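Data availability excerpt. The first of two example chains:
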Amino acid sequence: MCACAHVFHRYINFNAYVQTCIQGTSFCTSAYNAFWLIMRNIARIAAVTGVTHFLGLIGKISVVMGTAGRCEDASWCFKFDLD
C-alpha cells in the first residue's frame, strides 16, 4: 500500500511540474489541475498503457525471433564443407 501511494505521489508531482511549466500557475493549483486532468482521461491513459505494453511485447518477440533466425542461418552455412 505504501509503495502504491509513493508511485501515485511521484506521478502527481511530475504532472504538477509539467502543468506549472505549461500554465505558469502555482504548484498546488497545478497539482489540482493535473489530478483532475488525469481523472478525466483515465480511460485514454489505460488504453495507451495497454497498447504500449503490447507493442513492447511484440518488439521483444521480434528481437528474439530475428536473433534465432540469424543464428540458424549462420549455423546452416557452417554445416557444409567448402573444400
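And the second chain:
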Amino acid sequence: MSDKTQTDSAGPGDGLIRAGALVFFAGAVATLVTVFPLFLGASPFPTYMYGLSMLMAVGFLVAGAGVLRSVAAGRRQAREAAGSASR
C-alpha cells in the first residue's frame, strides 16, 4: 500500500487549524495585556478589553472544528480506499 499524500500538501481542515491557532494566540496576548495592570496596581482596562480575551475560546473552537474536519476527511478517504480494495 502506497501513501499518496504529499507531506507538504494542505489537507482539509488545515487552514482552520492555523487560523484557530492565530486567533487563540491573539486572545492569549489580549488576556496577558488585560490582566497585567491588575498585578501592577494600575487602573484596569475598559470592559471591551476583557471581551478580547474571549478570542482564546473562539480560536480553540475554530481549531477544534479544523481537527474534526480533518478527521472526517481521513475517515472518508479510508472508507473509499477500503471500498476500492474489496472490489
